[in-house]
Design a protein that fits this description.
The protein contains 9 helices and 5 strands. The chain is of the alpha+beta class and about 200 residues long. The chain folds into 3 domains: about 60 residues, Nucleic acid-binding proteins (OB fold (Dihydrolipoamide Acetyltransferase, E2P)), CATH 2.40.50.140; about 70 residues, 5' to 3' exonuclease, C-terminal subdomain (DNA polymerase, domain 1), CATH 1.10.150; about 50 residues, Helicase, Ruva Protein, domain 3 (Orthogonal Bundle), CATH 1.10.8. The chain has a 5-stranded mixed barrel with strand order 1-2-3-5-4. It is globular.
Length: about 200
């Protein structure tokens, strides 16, 4: 089972990267919380969760052990698979997730695509105490990195659609954002998610 990968970034997008490890390209699914932390190129190390199903082996990568711990907590909940757990971490930062679970904030959790009221209640019931034991203060601050403006809207739109938001919701969220003022994918994703989470 793969637990850690170190290699060069061959490709980076909001929902996955391809990591070149000594000539072998690993496709690693990532949440936005990890995407924000990755450089555009260069060598990185990711903490890996290996998901094995009958029809596929998928790798999920995280910049910190804490992100991976949250992911692994989430997939212990009935009805929450690896993709949904990744999408949850893409919509809400680990510290905010721990706070929402601790405060039994069903409304905040149920605004995440794929999480209805019943799933939100189940997350709180099963994870409230466990999440409180994780040290969220060790999470690094996200560093924003810019990319060419013409690619920004396409990347943000694709990322939000992959998270389960509907096209009208995405268009509405992006409508008031300025992608031509030098804003990066990270900045616009954060702004769009704030609008969508209201």
């Amino acid at each position: 089972m793969i637990a850690l990968l170190t290699g060069k970034i061959a490709h980076k997008s909001p929902d996955h990267i391809i990591l070149d490890v000594h000539g072998v390209g690993y496709r690693v699914m990532i949440p936005f919380s990890t995407y924000y932390e990755l450089p555009e190129e260069g060598e990185v190390s990711l903490h890996i969760h290996t998901s094995v199903r009958e029809d596929a082996i998928q790798l999920y990568g995280f910049r910190t052990r804490l992100e991976k711990s949250f992911f692994q907590l989430l997939i212990t909940v009935s009805g929450v698979g690896p993709k949904l757990a990744r999408d949850i971490l893409s919509n809400i930062q680990p510290a905010a997730l721990a706070q929402a679970l601790g405060a039994s904030d069903i409304h905040k959790l149920s605004t995440i695509p794929g999480i209805g009221k019943k799933t939100a209640e189940r997350l709180i019931l099963e994870l409230k105490d466990k999440a409180g034991k994780l040290d969220v203060s060790s999470l690094p601050k996200a560093e924003v990195r810019g990319i060419p403006a013409e690619d920004v809207i396409d990347d943000v739109t694709s990322a939000l659609l992959n998270l389960g938001y509907k096209e009208p919701q995405v268009k509405k969220a992006l409508g008031g954002l300025d992608a031509h003022g030098g804003a990066s994918v990270e900045e616009l994703l954060k702004q769009a998610l704030k609008i969508l989470m209201k």
